[in-house]
Amino acid sequence: MANGKNGTLYIGVTMNLPERVWQHKNHVNIDGFTARYDVHDLVWYQFFENMPEAVAKEKTMKKWRREWKIKLIEEQNPE
User: Fold this and answer.
1) Best label site of 10, 15, 27, 35, fewest CB within 10 Å?
2) Contact 43, 73 (CB under 8 A)
3) Which residues form a coiled coil (predicted)?
């Protein structure tokens, strides 16, 4: 998720993507990272068969350089 082009990026995992996006857009967790930085746009997602795989990918991507994340987003979601 992001708060606009060239803005803050957020990486997370969930078992219910539509609900989680709604929570971010509506600042359900007012003390959370996404509320603090107004992160509300879903810019990329990947489906996994199980949570351990998703968490492993999340941890890997959180270590990536910002440029790598932006490249992935732009390649798979050019809008």
Assistant:
1) 15
2) yes
3) none
